[in-house]
Amino acid sequence: GRFKVRMVARGDRQTADTYDVTHSPVVRTTTLRFLIAAAAIYDLDVYQTDVNTAYLNAPIDFDIYFIAPDCFPNPGAYLRAKKAIYGLKQAGVCWYMELEEKLIDMGFQRTIFDYYVWGTVRGDSPILIATYVDDLLFIGTDENCRAVLNELKSYYICRDDQKLATFLGMDFSRDNRENSFSRYDICMRDYILQYANSRGIGLQNRLKLSKFPGATKDVTSESLTPENLLDPAEKKTFQSLVGAFQWITGCCRPDITFITQSLASATNSPYRVHLDLAWKTLGYLMRTESAKLKLG
């Protein structure tokens, strides 16, 4: 892994007169699956890259001043921000506006089916770019993908530029079959196991939680009593589990769609039975960690 140090702004202290729009638009996971399937069917290449310290490439849209930290030569001095420093509320959208300007200069236009996918035609072949903050996906011929990547590197420092392997927690593998369409397989094994480990559940415990929670029959009126409400710490754990399930479901695991939607409806006031079902769902995911969604 990499070790890095970064000075960030205290966005929690930012006043309302120093920012306007704060959202950072990203491509939908359904669009990503569509693009990967299209690449497999039409035998296109898929490349990925990550823009290094992306936010620091974007100019800031307001006059914002900082008090210099103690590590500076003149601690306590007032400093004016010239770039979208990490931590600022509008840093994400400032970066997107910067990237948007560069893509337009490179001849790209937004697509109709997803506002955050850009496309153009080079030679006789189309090339598409899907944007997810500082992670970019390129779909096109090998020649076009490499050319656009090199052009982008004239503006930004990019790393991990390679053919699609791991993107946003999804592991991709390509199966090139003779006399047939190629196919992409999507798996989230590493993401699932890393998340389980972050919650203190190792592989040795997965069989204890392996029952498939296909229904919510355990949620009865007797289980929804005030004494069974989760305390704040448990509620936070439950909400974290549901958030992870929603991401996994949207990426490549439609088999847990029903239970995820059922649990999500209880995030405001969850009970003990909901947390138990969430642990069972995580156990099921751990036992089926290598399940794949096949596209193409």
What key phrases describe this protein's structure?
296 residues; 12 strands; flat; alpha+beta
Oligomer: single chain
Strand content: 15-25%
Radius of gyration from CA coordinates = 23 Å
* Major sheet characteristics: 6 strands, antiparallel
Structural class: alpha+beta
- Unreliable sequence segments: 210-216
Separate helix tally: 7
Mean pLDDT: 87
Helical proportion, percent range:
25-40%
Distance between the termini: 33 Å
Strand order of the largest sheet: 4-5-6-7-1-8
The run of helices and strands is HEEEHEEEEHEEEEHHHHE
Q: Overview of this structure, please?
A:
The protein has seven helices and twelve strands. It has helices spanning 29-41, 91-105, 142-153, 189-198, 232-251, 257-264, 272-287, and strands at 45-51, 65-67, 78-80, 109-110, 117-122, 125-132, 135-140, 158-163, 166-167, 170-175, 183-187, 292-295. The strands form three sheets. The protein has a six-stranded antiparallel β-sheet, sandwiched between helices. It has a four-stranded antiparallel β-sheet with strand order 9-10-11-12. Mean pLDDT is 87; it is low at 210-216.
Write the layout of secondary structure elements.
Elements: H1 29-41, E1 45-51, E2 65-67, E3 78-80, H2 91-105, E4 109-110, E5 117-122, E6 125-132, E7 135-140, H3 142-153, E8 158-163, E9 166-167, E10 170-175, E11 183-187, H4 189-198, H5 232-251, H6 257-264, H7 272-287, E12 292-295
Antiparallel strand pairs: 1-7, 1-8, 2-3, 4-5, 5-6, 6-7, 9-10, 10-11, 11-12
Helix pairs in contact: 5-6, 5-7
Q: What is this structure, in a nutshell?
A:
The protein is α+β, with helices and mostly antiparallel strands. It has helices at residues 29-41, 91-105, 142-153, 189-198, 232-251, 257-264, 272-287, and strands at 45-51, 65-67, 78-80, 109-110, 117-122, 125-132, 135-140, 158-163, 166-167, 170-175, 183-187, 292-295.
